[in-house]
Amino acid sequence: MAQIKSFVFNPFSENTYVLYDETGEAVIIDPGCYEQREKDALADFIEQNNLKPVKLLNTHAHIDHVLGNAFVKRKYGIDLYLHESDLPVLKAVAVLAPNYGMAAYEEAEVDHFLEAGQTITFGNTELEVRFVPGHAPGHVAFVNHADRFVIGGDVLFRGSIGRTDFPLSDFETLARSIRTQFYTLPDDYTVYPGHMGTTTIGQEKKTNPFIRL
């Protein structure tokens, strides 16, 4: 059974996730850790639970979700996975970071490109990759069907959706992604978003003021 540990990092209050199971293998998703204390919090949890990170996954490459990519790659010697369509977004972070007072941001190279329908494995756990553009052009979500949850990034929030006023963002594309890739999941699936607390597919289908069935 997959377990989930979440951290809230950086001034954007971004959710970083560590997924792990009984084998001790783990994946780190969207490491937003920038300050040393944030990096220490992530590393301490991994060490204290005797975990072995084996993959680094990005749902998308906006600045708040990738600040810790280089740190994680270097510390654990693991590969970075991102959808190819989000490469321009990732490349832009090095230019944007100083404007947010984050001049110490380090770039990290992508090792593997994620694709829709791909299965990511670690330990005894499988994650289905779903392509969900709109907030970002190469946004993906990771679905665990065995334990009925979604690591959704900035697509669907409790009572809200990802912003579409960024460059390369588009509301109609995001709405289509939510309707076809999120709302087609069973109602009891838990959504772990890139910001704020969890919700469920069923709750958002009924009450989300932006995208409702």
Automatic annotation (TrEMBL):
Record keywords, A-Z: Hydrolase, Metal-binding, Zinc
Signal peptide span: none
Pfam family, one: Lactamase_B
Cofactor(s) essential for the protein: Zn(2+)
SMART domains, per the entry: Lactamase_B
GO MF, one example: metal ion binding
Name of the molecule in the record: Glyoxylase-like metal-dependent hydrolase (Beta-lactamase superfamily II)
Organism expressing this protein natively: Larkinella arboricola
Phylogenetic lineage: Bacteria, Pseudomonadati, Bacteroidota, Cytophagia, Cytophagales
